[in-house]
Amino acid sequence: MYKRVLVATDGSELSGRAVAAAIDLALLTGAGLVSINIAHLHVYSTFEGAMVLNQREIDSAQEEANLAAQRLVDSVASLAAAKGVRSTQAIVVKSNQVGESIIITAKNEQCDLIVMASHGRRSFARLLMGSETLHVLTHSHIPVLVLR
């Protein structure tokens, strides 16, 4: 049925449920699992609040975010491998375009299913923050399984 399943995770409890479902689905279908996290590119002005940040501090903060993202996807891949998923891959994409990065990675990695969580924001909060899940649902040519 599925050969490669991509699961998007941000480390939240809800995305943890999506990870568990993706692992179960990969085991059930004999698919490989690709875990992805989008590490946001931090854009800092010369002044961040009341603190002056130099380039070394900015680079250090970005590196910490990148390492945290890598640890997250590595833990998903390790969990999947420990449960018996035949092949696992952990990918960090550095971008501020979360939904588009998920779609592009799924296509590039030849995934035939995207699994992700919806945080269920409604009305005004959704208008302010947008919905990465909605972006993936409306723009992906690959099937998307959304967990709430």
TrEMBL record:
Family matches, as SUPFAM superfamilies: Adenine nucleotide alpha hydrolases-like
One Pfam short name: Usp
Cross-referenced CDD domains: USP-like
InterPro entries the UniProt entry points to: Rossmann-like_a/b/a_fold (IPR014729), Universal_stress_UspA (IPR006015), UspA (IPR006016)
Residue ranges occupied by any UspA domain in the UniProt entry: 1-148
Homology family: Belongs to the universal stress protein A family.
Protein name: Nucleotide-binding universal stress UspA family protein
Annotated organism of origin: Variovorax boronicumulans
